[in-house]
């Protein structure tokens, strides 16, 4: 009697666990019903994908049947795509064509998104605009307090991203003013900085790559953007492979899977073999247990471990600079990268070994002493980064208590730093066994 109850309990637990891993179907929500109807009017046939909420990834798409490798996941007709062609055929088209100096394709798309969002009910794109995120978590949108907690290389790129949007806004102001005849309200209040930041993030995080022929009315920047309603609900996983391209025969953007996926599970695509810093910078999220992730070592950190009294130090740094060995030095799941070890080998060359720098650059072991010093220094740098990361994680947990409004953004940086810590601890283990 007791046995059978246990088995039922296990079954129930398994079922509960399965439903916990599966998504909660959201296709009954009004915004998705309207979006599907709108897509259908533009020639989108029903797919096996349904919008759903997932525990780990948030909003995504689940499959209503099991998928096999080589199957077509989704086919989105050209009419559903939002491109510069869409912008030119709207009421903005004439203004863009006559504007000098010509706008970039990115400026045109940003302008269109802001104008359509402002149009509200009158916009033919409203069903799509309604399901777009209201806010983003790209580094450009983070508060300075949060940006300060990012690893140095990412912090620098986040500041560059902020400046780039600022410059885009400044260079677009005159064009925005020229659109005044189209609007009852002042264009300054419609096309403000936060509206542009939202439009830029929408394009940067959600567009698919699609090459368009160059048009005279645009600047020479590549025109490679297309916003793909519904398809852009697919989340990224570093562990899947897909084939994605515009099919000239069917005039549709298609995604084919190279992985299997069981019924009711989330369907993933892969945005590319990106590490977590790149994912956060470009898309505003972090992937847990990302096999491509690594922790970067800045040139400043690297050089701290070598004596300024070394007579050949200047020459060694110059060699590394000339051969591009002061950038992209990393620790990964397999330990220190080949590039990091190579830089350490060159910097560890003794006065009597300096002539062998070419061999060291090729990754050859010049002497047992050199190799031991390089590995020992790698272990010290790794330990320094572990302590630095632990210190930042402590700062984050304190800030989360004090600043309720920053909680979501802090949680994102916490994920990035926790993942970094795991990689560094793994690297420390590997270095410890190799030193032994």
Automatic annotation (TrEMBL):
<dbReference type="GO" id="GO:0005634">
    <property type="term" value="C:nucleus"/>
</dbReference>
<dbReference type="InterPro" id="IPR016852">
    <property type="entry name" value="SET_MeTrfase"/>
</dbReference>
<dbReference type="Pfam" id="PF09273">
    <property type="entry name" value="Rubis-subs-bind"/>
</dbReference>
<dbReference type="InterPro" id="IPR050600">
    <property type="entry name" value="SETD3_SETD6_MTase"/>
</dbReference>
<dbReference type="InterPro" id="IPR015353">
    <property type="entry name" value="Rubisco_LSMT_subst-bd"/>
</dbReference>
<comment type="similarity">
    <text>Belongs to the class V-like SAM-binding methyltransferase superfamily. SETD4 family.</text>
</comment>
<dbReference type="InterPro" id="IPR046341">
    <property type="entry name" value="SET_dom_sf"/>
</dbReference>
<dbReference type="InterPro" id="IPR036464">
    <property type="entry name" value="Rubisco_LSMT_subst-bd_sf"/>
</dbReference>
<keyword id="KW-0395">Inflammatory response</keyword>
<dbReference type="GO" id="GO:0032259">
    <property type="term" value="P:methylation"/>
</dbReference>
<keyword id="KW-0539">Nucleus</keyword>
<dbReference type="GO" id="GO:0005829">
    <property type="term" value="C:cytosol"/>
</dbReference>
<protein>
    <recommendedName>
        <fullName>SET domain-containing protein 4</fullName>
        <ecNumber>2.1.1.364</ecNumber>
    </recommendedName>
</protein>
<keyword id="KW-0808">Transferase</keyword>
<dbReference type="Pfam" id="PF00856">
    <property type="entry name" value="SET"/>
</dbReference>
<comment type="subunit">
    <text>Forms a ternary complex with TBK1 and ZNF268; the interaction with TBK1 is ZNF268-dependent and leads to TBK1 monomethylation.</text>
</comment>
<dbReference type="InterPro" id="IPR044429">
    <property type="entry name" value="SETD4_SET"/>
</dbReference>
<keyword id="KW-0949">S-adenosyl-L-methionine</keyword>
<feature type="domain" description="SET">
    <location>
        <begin position="47"/>
        <end position="272"/>
    </location>
</feature>
<keyword id="KW-0963">Cytoplasm</keyword>
<dbReference type="InterPro" id="IPR001214">
    <property type="entry name" value="SET_dom"/>
</dbReference>
<dbReference type="GO" id="GO:0140945">
    <property type="term" value="F:histone H3K4 monomethyltransferase activity"/>
</dbReference>
<dbReference type="GO" id="GO:0006954">
    <property type="term" value="P:inflammatory response"/>
</dbReference>
<keyword id="KW-0489">Methyltransferase</keyword>
